[in-house]
Queue: 4 jobs
Job 1
Amino acid sequence: MGKIAVKVDDLTVAYNYKPVIWDIDLKIPEGVLMAIVGPNGAGKSTLIKAILGILKPIAGSVTIFDKPYKSQRKHVAYVPQKESVDWDFPTTALDVVMMGTYGSLGWIKRPGIKEKKSALEALEKVGMLSFKNRQISQLSGGQQQRIFLARALVQDASIYFMDEPFQGVDATTEVAIVNILKELRKAGKTVVVVHHDLQTVPEYFDWVTFLNVKKIATGPVKDIFNDDNLTKTYGINYKVSIQK
Amino acid sequence: MEIIEYIKLVFSDYTLRTITFGTAILGAVTGMLGSFAVLRKQSLLGDAISHAALPGIALAFLITGTKDSNVLLIGALISGLIGTFWIRGITSKTHLKSDTALGLILSVFFGFGILLLTFIQKLPNADQAGLDKYLFGQAATLMESDVWLMTLVTGLCLIVLLLFWKEFKILLFDKDYALTLGFNTKLIDILITSFIVLAIVLGLQTVGVVLMSAMLLAPAAAARQWTNSLGMMVFLAAILGASAGFFGTAISATQSNLSTGPVIVLVASVFVLFSFVLSPKRGLLFKQIRLIKNRNDLELQKTLAFMYHIVEDHEDISHPHAIRILNNFQGYSRKGLKKLVDKHYVELDGEMWSLTPKGFEVASNLYNQNQKND
């Protein structure tokens, strides 16, 4: 693993007075599938949002492939938390996925046949092609999550940030997402996922970051995913033996 | 007055034509922009903006001493914009929620505006009469130049909407995501909010400070009921807004002593009521009908399944059974039984029923399906 895809230096974010994340240094190597784990309020979503420039950090810097994030947006795709939008918005599944092409189109230019084609391909990848004309409010939670995933896939980025994609999805969707993650890794992409289910970390991911306001540890799952780090992160004595 | 006669009059009578076109164009532009306000859950923003415009009108009069509507509207525009950006500032810089910020700005600006109006009324020299028309609106004072201004703004608004359609859409649906794609969401936000302020200010003379927000919300809320496409919603809201303007003016012009602004708002409210009840997909009426139909269908299916259970032990599926054995079964009713007969699933003979081969087949499929689900 040679190149560093994402490099975070001294990143600190605070709402009001209390820091939500404190002095985070993080190097994410290219091509890894990384889980970010930590208790509620540990700043997992905040870290991603700060890296993506959605939240303004108090201090710190982010580089993507050794260049400032702002000049590298094209290489980065984002899957927000499903609950962050109003799904009663008057639009269709295909239309939402098309939004993934807006970035490369830039201002004013409208999506055309080429953009529609890649949106349809992405819908097929997440198994949602037959729902393309469905009003988004009529999709199940898992289907909505897959639509968000397809929207990120359309961006055809090198690095993917996903905020709790497994949150409240059914088994079908979980399998679909895992397959997409594997395909992304096969294609050499870097994927960073905010994750809650500790049991599935060794199965789904090869790299892990423990976060609780500060960074506790980061590295390959096989080296650092142990009771010691879990205890340090979650504060309680972690004696769950998780199979590796 | 007959409607045809009225339409003829609209085209021949200068004043009536001016007012009709003015209110219709106003309705169209507020309907369009209102769609965005409603979808951003900023329905009350319009109310705050229109109230915040009042002190601007009064101050513009005090400073210039003129009652020229364009001058007063510039004052309204400035104070409306100040109010809007204060609301933004309050919500982003403090812990206050947006509804609190809206309420705060609304009442502070409106209170200040009313204070200024009463002050102006007590001035010895000023011919102050007429400023209070901005409170409740007075369409009759619309002049051709006002209508031209409205048309200009509407045209400009259309061009901007068409150019930045994709940017507006993604901002409305998912602002954070739009930001990660590299769009300057603040700029899009300011663009759309400025147009909303502009449209509201243009309507103050016609509909007034107090009722103006209804012009923004009612057509959009009604339009949302009929469509699941953003483009169609904006288009419909414009049409409904224009119709509210047209018919509202017609009603108030043909009846004496009905002021135009409130009538327009009432017409728009009728559209909303009509849409909430009668729209096929989201309307209350059809929702209720679908619900009842579903329940009835399920009851029928359950009754049929029950009959199937009785029948399946017999060799002859059409062996008659007494109706009274069904009485113990919940969901059974005489009416339901008659429906099953109408569908040729069941035959009746006096107090006896029997399943037809068709009914047996349907029932057995139901039963298999239920088993699969278990």
Job 2
Amino acid sequence: MMEFFTWASNLSKTSPVAYGLINLLVMAVIGVALAAAADLFFKALKVDLGSYKKEYEEEAGTHH
Amino acid sequence: MIHLPASGIDMAWWPLLLIGFTVGVVGGYFGIGGAWLVTPALNIFGFPMIYAVGTDMTHIVGKSIVATFRHWKFGHVSAVIAFTMLLGTFSGVEIGAQVVYYLTQKGLAGTTIRIVYMCILAFLCFYMFYDYLRARRIEITTGKKVGDVVGTSVSRWLHEATATLPPILRCRNTGMVMSFWFIVFIALFTGFVAGFLGIGGGLVRVPAMVYLMGLPTKVAVGTDLFEVMFSGAYGCFTYSLKGGVELVAAVIMLLGAAVGAQFGTICTKYVHGIFIRLLFSITCAFAFVAVLLKQLARGYERVYEKGIEAVLLKAGYTKAQLTGLMLKQDVMQHYMVEVAKRPDWFEAWKMAAAYTKAGGVFVLTAASLLTGVILFQLVRGVIQERRAKLALEAQARATR
């Protein structure tokens, strides 16, 4: 794992554009994976985290 | 300990995980990136500052994906508004950055920007707190619970003024219809402010969506996180081009932030929008103090900055080494007192370091307090929901 980070870090000196793209890709992949894993975790626990009735829907929008 | 390959230093991994978790909770709850929290906090733990902003921007990309996904499932994200806002945001940021460039050439940038930032934060803090108190007063006079206050006289006036400007877009979450140009105008304005202040913009965009666009608080939070995903990606890429990103640190922060963002985001289900506004106003007050401490530190830095730079360059150090050297007390004492014979520089350096440290400690305390309150709200909400569910089941069994 550390080898990858060292390689990526060296890339910042030789090819900054590739370094930028790799950083974006790594964050996007980990972000999507963690979001999906959390969703599966809550589903396994049978916790309902879907859409719900919000206060502004109940009150049909309070204006002042 | 982990090795940071870009800067070449070793540091403990747990502060990164902890900062990530805290900023994840706060960011998921308020719909902000939280750069004002991360940078001073990283400074306290000895993270190399030239990589702080870029690393923060990079972890924001992953964190906002996690938080947006959850808000999306709750129905808090308006994709139509978020995508339309992107057009205005990027243009606004560029205009704001040009103004900063102009001010930098005139030597007015730093202080002017911080004073404008503090004025905006103070205004938001007082206005949102006043807004919360007004909602509570409505509750007392009408005897009816006020969960969220949707729309203001300004937002209604703006909606009416732009109602005939096609194309007209429909926000499915709220049932609101608004002109494409109205959204672009708001995004241009908030983007300009963000670009001018050099921040991600969540602290300005969420209140703008609530008070100028008239969106419900939770939709403003979710939609802003969607927006943060793209602005974070832009920041990550540009800072990477300059070599200002420690990828391994960003990954560790993201691991903490992904967990924190779940808690922060889920908590929004259990609290009313008006309460989010109250905590947001307190957050603005915290950010105000953090910027004020930074400004005080900056005042002392000006005393020795140019002088010591010249001394260090003369001693054979490169420009790239200066930032790191200026953090070391023994090096500063040697070059300021013994080489340059300027003990007043060293006194100013000590004061600047003290204010910077105070800023970091304050921000960490503030973030911990906010996280504590949000987690308490979450636990309370889950318990109440569980109790209500059990009561309903008992009632159903009794009627059978």
Job 3
Amino acid sequence: MQTAVRAEGAVKIYGHGNLGVRALDGVTVGFEAGKFSAIMGPSGSGKSTLLHCLAGLDSLTAGKVFIGERDLGLLDDRSLTLLRRERVGFVFQAYNLIPTLNARENITLPLDIAGKNGDQGWVERVIEVMGLGDRLTHRPSELSGGQQQRVAVARAVASRPEVIFADEPSGNLDSTSGAQLLGFLRKAVDDFGQTIVMVTHDPGAASYSDRVVFLGDGRVVDELLNPTADSILDRIRTLEG
Amino acid sequence: MFRATWKGLLGHKLRMALTLIAIMLGVGLVAGSYIFTDTLTRVFDNLFADSFAGIDVQVRQSFDPDLGFALPDRMPESLVEEIRSIDGVQESVGTVAGLVTLAGSDNVLGGKGPPTIAGSWSATATPLRIRDGRAPAAGGEIAVDASTATREKLAVGDEVTVIALAGPEPFRIVGTLGFGGSDNFGGATFVAFDYQTAQRVLGAVGMVDTISIVGDPTLTPETLINRIKPILPPGVEAVTAQTAAEEQLANFKQALGFLNTSLLVFGFVSLFVGAFLIQNTFQIIVAQRTRELALLRALGATRIQVSRMVLGEAFLVATIGSVAGVGLGAGLAVLIRAAFSAFGGSLPSTTLQILPRTVLISLAAGIGVTLISAYLPARRAGSVPPVTAMRAASATFSPRSLHKRAIGGTAILGLGAATLAIGLLGKLQSDTIPEVAIVGVGAGIIFIGLSVLTPTFARPLGRTLGAPLPVLFGATGKMARENAVRSPRRTAATASALMIGVALVGLVTIIAATIRATTDELIADRFRSDLVVQSAGFGGFGLSPALAEELGKLPEIATVVPVRNGPAKIAGMSVSSVVQTSPRL
């Protein structure tokens, strides 16, 4: 198996001394390239912190994070920025589109930032797959939640990153739009060979993935391959019990 | 990135409009002062050139330019004939001039502000042109400049009174005059008599003030001067018409320079104040867009790219504002000119002079000030941590300690106070830097120091002033107070907009009050008497000494003191006014 991103003994402490909170308490985990992985866990289990650290948005207190073979701890702010620009894509719970740019401009924003034209054929294909062809000139405020999140996914996929990190991507959507969106993420993995790491607390969302990693109190407590919503719920009950 | 910049601007129309107005006003004042003074200079340049048109050489009493408006002695009339007999001289015309008051049946005509000048008419070697009627040819006839005639509704055939040293005398208008192409001479009222009448009315019988000379066209003015020089008595000089025009323009430019400086000071003060407004606006915009900026960082925009984007916005706004400001400046210049006209100084019209220098300075000032103001907010934008994009609530900046700010602010304040003190006490005896400039710089530094310190005041002041709120309004009152105290920087940023407003109102009020107090003091100091009798109009030509005697005879008047004043030089230093009084009558 080829690992796209991995953490080794990752520790993250917020605050200092006695008041310090151990959000990550020695996490060692790898995520396979070309697969859809989910990170689950109750509130405060450290799943969001792990995602931020894996994506190079936040730094570890101890331990290492690798994207490909690159150790993020050795990179300065500029190199880390360039790494995010070239190898990482994001999908956020709150969509995070630029309100003043239209859908197409939002999709090509990472390419704009990099000063590249990108592969136009690829961009058009992504737009088509996401079903956004007739929405490209609309501003985010003129789009539904589901459409906005599809724009966000298209934005992440358009620059062909090594890995896409998604933080509760269906969290703000109704069940139909949520299911549709997760279907698109699945499609990106199956059709384009995209690597996706997703944080969620929703077993239904996690069931779209190839593998679920369970976190509790800042540690990896379990994992499940080829999950279904039922098998995930069973596992959660076992873990809580 | 450029697209994000441009669209980001459009997304904050109202805030950007405020910034735009701040830049526009400041740049407008700067550009307006230049355009106005350049236009005036051009107008008078034309005028002075006009007033010597058709003349090659002028003979006059040499005078000291330091003494300003002092009228030099006159020359004997015989000199006119002597010059005419010189080989190469085609025309030699003597002229007399002086100050008078022109009156209607019961009112003063013209000369409110600018003086009323009386002179002798001559058909040749003169810029004077008859517009209407004919030239004055005998005693009792007068010609009035066309502009005054229009303003005071005077027509050929009307009777007017001319008051000169010898007393009032009736005249009949026989014509109206122009100066070359213009209707009057830079706002002054001008009347002309025939040569002999002018000499009599102005007390110059047998004398002339200047001699205008036209030479053989094949001779240069310099050659002409060399031929005239030998016969000139001591204290009399011959200059080319061009030199005479340039001298007058130079005098005028010096006076205008002062006006330009005062107007420019207002422009730069408003740009300085605008800088705070601009910084405030950009700080708010950056704070509001924290998430958006964090997103850009997360998507791979470098710190420099994000900072540059904010600076790019600033640059765009600054460019639009500065260009609009130059336009506003042109409008202001037109307005100032209209205001001058309203006070009776009708200025000849010329196209507005918008010189490349004006545009360059205005754009540089507007864009420079905006970029400097936006620099800190832009740097702040670059340092937004990218992880902020992932968090639901927009994170605030990590609260840095206010200690450094308190120390820095106090240091700046101290520096400002020291500068102000040096300026006020006049300790720096420098010829090149005026004390008022030091005071101005000191005040500016103090302003910066105070604005740096405001966040440190915000917390204790907010607690103290907000103390009654919980008592008065319960929980909501407590929330209001705590909100103001919680983020001293935010409170200070909001307060600083108010601070600028109050400072501006204070500035204008203090200037107005100072001018009034100074005038009051001046009046109280200078006029100890109950009444002052003086001739109407600028400078005044004086009054007949006989008037003082006559007034002294009135039973209602206890004391009359005749006063005579004029400029003088004492031990090489020029003094603006020397007053001579005679013992009380």
Job 4
Amino acid sequence: MAETKNMILNMGPQHPSTHGVLRLILELDGETVVKLTPEIGYLHRGVEKLGENLTYHQFIPLTDREDYIASLSNNLAYCMTVEKLLGMEVPPRAMVARVLLTELQRIASHLIWLGTFGLDIGAMSLFFYCMRERETILDMFEACAGARLTINYFRIGGIAKDLPEGFEKRVRDFIDILPEKMKNDYERIFQDNKIVRIRTEGVGIISKEDAVDLGLSGPLLRACGVPWDIRKSNPYCGYETYEFDIPTGKTGDVFDRYLVRMEEMRQSLKIVQQALDRLPGGAFLADDPKICLPPKQKVMTEMESLIHHFKIVSEGFDPPVGEVYHSIETPRGELGFYIVSDGSNKPYRLRFRPPSFVNLESLAKMAEGKLIGDLIAIIGALDPVMGEVDR
Amino acid sequence: MSEMVVEKLKKRFSASVLDSYSFRDENTVVIKKEDLVAICRYLKSDPELSFDFLSDLCGVDYMGREPRFEVVYHLFSINKHHRIRLKAMVGEGEKISSVVGLWSTADWHEREAFDMYGIIFEGHPNLTRILMPENWDGHPLRKDYPLKGR
Amino acid sequence: MTEFVTIMIVKMVVIFAAVMGTMTYITLAERKILGYMQIRPGPNRVGPWGLLQPIADGIKLFLKEDIIPDKASKAVFVIAPAMALIPAVMTIAVVPFGPTVTILGRPVDIYMADLNIGILYIFAVSSIGVYGIVLAGWASESKYSLLGGLRASAQMISYELSMGFAIVGVIMMSQSLSMVKIIEAQQGVWFIVPQLFGFIIYITAAMAELNRTPFDLPEGESELVAGYFTEYSSMKYAMFMLAEYINIITVSGIVTTLYLGGWSGPVLPPLLWFVIKLLAVVFFMIWVRATVPRLRYDQLMTLGWKVLLPASIVNILLTPIIMKIFGYL
């Protein structure tokens, strides 16, 4: 009998379903994945190093480029970390607007996840339906900030400018449409499909203990049945005052991850609704001239403001010496920033704890011993964004 | 909440806790690197603490100070919802024990710290570069590594 | 004799041209229909409603550089696309597009040949097509191609069986293997009614034979990049595409003939009826593509061997009873 050898298949970094530049070295026995080694770093831009050489304000746009699917969440995590370092209060309007926008961002992110996940397992149409709804959200972001993907809307101490006119109506219209679309367009074409079920149920199972051990967070961890959501456990931005549930799964398979994300979108809508109802008036940026940029009008007319503006733009501000870690719940899990300040205008150390990076680590555990088709579904359900994996 | 953790740690490992301080409601404990694994095991297994989740592990370079590097561990307890920050100091070329045995998630984090700072984690199953190419020279996040023009 | 040859040559040219024309516009129709199902307009830049798109595609494919990978087995790599295309074209010969009509005082059949073993011929010839795919996968010396080729061969062999068994019911009812006889046997009631079960099995297996979604594993984009034709470019790539779409027409033609009464129908001319039915089947396939995701490899095999094959055998056993009920016996 001839000797058989396992085949080494190099999947990626250019491959239709590795979600960017993820490279997997697969050892295959027929179609079964025997060993899986992820190779990352193709998108490494040295963001942490850059952060040590930029002032605190200058770093905000770079956070957009980490998890580019949910850039507002990154803005929020970073701004909140710096605010914590400064010991700074944010005006209530900004706080509610932040919740409102990041929850919309969560929906947009989950929509794009759902669409690409559908593409991964071969359901083409779903992608376009998801994009249609995501488009509405992106239009709202565009109205707010002028940008659609790298939004860069939050500032240290609040938000860059006030919410635009007619924003509330747009959001309310969207709240009215989405549940119906989810029910008619997504669930009927996807969830109720027999093939989707057999492709996702019982695939990529990971136990509760393993999930915690591997540091999974976000919807992936909740799909395993661990009801941990930073918005509930360590509330920030006043999340403790909103009413919402944390959906959890039972088995921790790909289908549970789908269900958890779908339910999360509904819960996010609930939060958006509540945030809209309570959106207070008033300032949208903290009144701290040493840290927050003054409005353009004042810069043009007041000497003081002009000086502050110049100082902030040219050299930033000096926070106290110390170190803080702050993490928030992004669509992908726990996103943390760890900033060490030496009292100068630039962070001494800026560490970015990306949820995708940690989640991706468990891929081998989930996919080894499965078929290639399963592997694709598992990568899809992991929802890695290579921008934040590689930084 | 996490003051309790610090108190318990100080009581149990009085010799290994070098320093502890609190800033913005966050508690930091500086420990001797030799006792790292013992402390971590205690933090993880003690039912009152139950730090079952390693949020983050990273290195920091304090160039010009001895020992030069710090490894920072951010622990979280999913049941108790409290956090603690552990720090262990490592000199250049020195080794620190790996915590992969306690939290598997440390695997890639430790590889990254090795990649970026050259900190060597003893007992790590596969300590190779992770973000930079395998044949890369130097460790980019060190303070003496130039930002550009290399 | 000269007259016969002339008629045959003219018919050959006309039918071939018609099929090629239909085929190119089926590619456009597929993209358009998928587009409308997916809330986007589909191709609409080349010509009005994108009508010139297939021509633009063709020109583009002609003009592309023809790349042969260095490590490929060159001869096989070159032959493989032709081996996929030729059987596809050959099967058209027995598809009965219409009955005998009188043109210029001469009786002309609107099909190439009425073989008394028509169905067997189709099966025999179309199975050769799989060689093209397997050899393409093997000769490319690429791992994705190899996996695609392996998947294709396993899939086609598995589904050919149930496909063959499924039509036994039709043959029993029509008492003939000739395509024309089968159509004539359906003058009363189309076989889709008594043979509904067989029809479902046949169309499922046929879609697997065609590598259409949900059975498009050999070329499953998100898994194997492009499967067996990953390394192909230019006209060789186009030949695989041609073969695929010609096969769609043939299979739709066979479904029309076996189950939908072929050219028979009221009022409209028979040829038109045939085309309408054929396009309806093509539309169905496009519709399915827009709706369902892809099966996994092992699930595909399970479906073929554990569901469709037994079901098709049961169908054979049931057919005599059905024939009794419908008064064929």
